[in-house]
Amino acid sequence: MGTCALCGTHFAAGPSRARYCSNACRQRAYRLRTAGTSTVVTELPAYADSFVGREGELAGLQSLLRKHRMLTLTGAAGVGKTRLAVELAGRVRRTEVRTVELGRLSGAGQVVQAFAEAVGTYRHAGAALLGTLLAELSGRRVLLLVDNCEHLVRECCDVVDALLARCPGVQVLATSREALRAIGEVVHPVRGLEAGAVRLFTERAGVSATEEHASAISALCARLDGIPLAVELAAKLSRSVPLDELAGRLDERLDLLADADAGARHRSLRAAIAWSHDLLTGQEEALFRRLALVPGGFGLDVAHVVHGGPVIALLAALQAKSLVVREDDGRFRMLESVRLYAEERLREHDEHAVIAERIVDWLCGMGEPGVTSSILAPEQVGVQHQEYDNARYAFARLVAPHDERRLMLATILLRVCLDRGHFTEAGAVLMQVLDQSAADARYRVLALEYASLLAGHEERHDEAVKYATEAVDTAQAGRQELVLCRLFRTLAGAYDGLGDLPNTAWALRRSIEHGVRNGNDVGVALSSQNLGWVQLVLGDVDTAEELVGAALPVLRTRARPDVAAAAVHTSGCIALERGDLATAGARFAESTRMSAASPRAVLESVEGGALVAVLSGRCERGVRLLAACRQMRATWAVPLEPWWRRKLLAAQDVARESLSRAAFTRAEHAGRAMDVRHAVDTALDEETERDAVLSDRQRVVVDLVAQGRTNAQIAATLGISHRTVESHVHNVKTALNLATRAQLTAWAHAH
C-alpha cells in the first residue's frame, strides 16, 4: 500500500503511480507546485546534528549555483560532499528541490526511474520514461540534487544532458567522486576541513576545545586530512578512548574508525574508500595500490618507476575518481587514509617487497651524485628536498637496519635537514647509521661529512675535524676520488671553526688540486672563493681579489643562488676593505637579492648593506639592519665569524657616536621588530632615509594611505611593486612608532 502525496488516500502502489493515487491528484499537485512561491516543495535528507564549517565555501557555491545550471561537487570518500550539497540546496529560495539518490542503485537502467520517482513522474503506456520525465519537467522550476553518481557516471550524464537541454527551469546539483562531464558542468572539488575540523571534532565528541586539548585535537585532525567522516568517527571513539591513545593508533584507523549504526558506505572509513576502489579497472587498481609506498607525494617519474610502465592515463583516471589529488606544485598525493587502504591491497597482492625495492633503488639513484660529484647541481638538490618525505618513509620502513642503502637514504635526509635547519632531526638520523655501517661502506663518507657539518654547527669543532678527517681517509682508501674536492672543503670548514686558518687554507688548496684533477670547475670555483675569504681575513686583499674574481663567473652561471651569493658577498667585503663603498653596496645588494629565498643565508648580505649604510652616513638605517640581523641570528642560532663580527661591532660603534642616544635606541627598537622579509626590503630600498623624517616617496605613499588606497592600488598608481609599497608602509610605521594603518592615516592628517 502507498499513500497519495496530495490527498493522503491509501492506494495500491504500482509502477505507474509511485506518488499519487490518481492522474487527477497528480495534475492537481502539478498546478499547486507551479501556482506560486507558497507551494514550493523541498525534499532533502534530514540530519539530527548541526552543519559545521565551510561557511566561506558555501557562500562561494551559492554564487556558482546562481550563475550555472549544472554544478558537481567532487571529492574523496567521506569528504562531506553530500552534507555540503544538502546544506547548499537548503539555502535555495523560490525553487522546488528534489533529491535523486543513486547510491543504492546497481543497474544503469534504474537511473531514469530514480529521477522520475524523485519528481513524481509515472510511466505512460507505450511511452519512454525519459520522454515522460522531460515533458513533466519542461514547465517546472526545480533543483535536482543528484547524490552519489560515481558508479553510474555515463548514464547519469545522459539524463542530465537531456534535462538541461529540454527543460529550461531545471537546475542540477550533483555529488560524485568523479565529474560527470555533462554539458555546461561546473566542477567544485571538495577538500578536507582545515580549522573547521577541530570544531567538528569537539562538537561531535561533546567536549570543549580547551587549550590543553586543542593542539592534540588539531594534530589528530591534520593526520586525518580533515576528512569529516574520519573526524566524526574519531570524535565518537574519543568518548571511550583517550586522545593520546587514539592518536597513537591512527595507523590502524581503517579498523578503528567504524560505526555500526551508519549507512553501508559510511559505516567505516574502510567501506567508504572501498566504494571508490571497487569502481577501478584492473590497471587502475594496480597503480593505485603500488602508489601506497610514496606517502610524500609523487610526480610522473616516480609513478612510472613504481608502476613499472606508462602511467599518465591511469593517473588521470585515479585523479578523476578522487583517489589521488594534485597539489599546487603539480605533484600528486594520496590522502593518508586512502594510502593506508592502498597499502592493505598491496600486501593482499603480495607486491609490497617488490614495490619497496623499486622505490628504494630509485631514491638511492637520486642520491648517487653525492658520491660521484664535488658539488650538487641546483636541480639535484631540489629533487632531494622534493622527495624528502618519501626518503624518510623508506629509511624508517622499507630497508633493513644493516642494508647499506639505508646509509644512502640517511645522507639524503641529512642533506635536507641541514639545509632546512632541522639539526635535532639530523642528529637523530646520524645516531642510527654511523655505528651500524661498516667502516668501508661506500656511502659512509657522506654520513661522516654530514656528521662533521652538524658538529661544526653545534660548535663541537674538534669533533667536526675528526669526522671530516675520517671522511677524507675513507674516501682515499676506497679510491672515491670524485668527492675529495668536496670533502677537503668540508675539512677546511671544520678547521675554520677551530680558528686554525693555516690548516683551513691547506685543506682548501688540496680541495682545489682534486677539483682541477677531476675537471670539476664548480667545485674549484667554490673552494677558490672560500680560500679568497681566508686570504681576506689574513689581510692579503690582492690574493683574495684574484681568487674570488676567477671564481665569480663560474659560480654566477652554474652554482645555486645561495652559493653564488656567498662569493658575491666576499667580493663586496673586498671592495669594502679597499674603501670602495659604491661597489661594496652594489655587491651586497646583489647577494641579498640572490639569497633572499634563504633566510639564514641572506643575513650576511643584509649586514653588508648595513655596514655600507653606516660608513656612508646613513647610520640609522644601518643600525636598524644590524639590530634586525642580530635578533634573527640569536633566534636561529646562526653564529658570526670572528672577522665579520669585528666589522659589525666597529660599524655599530661608529653609528653610536654619530647618532643621539634617542635616535640610536629608536633605530635599535625598530630593527628588532623587523622580520627577515622587511629587513631584506629595507636593505634593498635606496630611499630609506637616515632619520625618522620621511623621504619624498614615503610621503607620497603615506598620502595615498590616508586617501584610503590599498597597497595594491598604491603600487599601481606609483608603478612600483606591491612588496615595495608594503615595505614602505612597514618602515614608516616603524620609524614613526605607529602600530596600525588607522594611526598612520591620523598622523598624515595631523602633519
TrEMBL record:
- Which GO molecular-function terms appear in the entry? ATP hydrolysis activity; DNA binding
Signal sequence range:
none
Q: Which CDD domains match?
A: LuxR_C_like (cd06170)
Task: Please report a single Pfam family linked to this protein.
Answer: GerE
Domain HTH luxR-type residue range list: 687-751
Membrane-crossing segments per the record: none
PROSITE patterns membership: HTH_LUXR_2
Biological process terms from the Gene Ontology for this record are: regulation of DNA-templated transcription
Q: Which Gene3D superfamilies does the UniProt record give?
A: P-loop containing nucleotide triphosphate hydrolases (3.40.50.300), Tetratricopeptide repeat domain (1.25.40.10), Winged helix-like DNA-binding domain superfamily/Winged helix DNA-binding domain (1.10.10.10)
UniProt-recorded name of the protein: HTH luxR-type domain-containing protein
Q: What is the lineage of its organism?
A: Bacteria, Bacillati, Actinomycetota, Actinomycetes, Pseudonocardiales
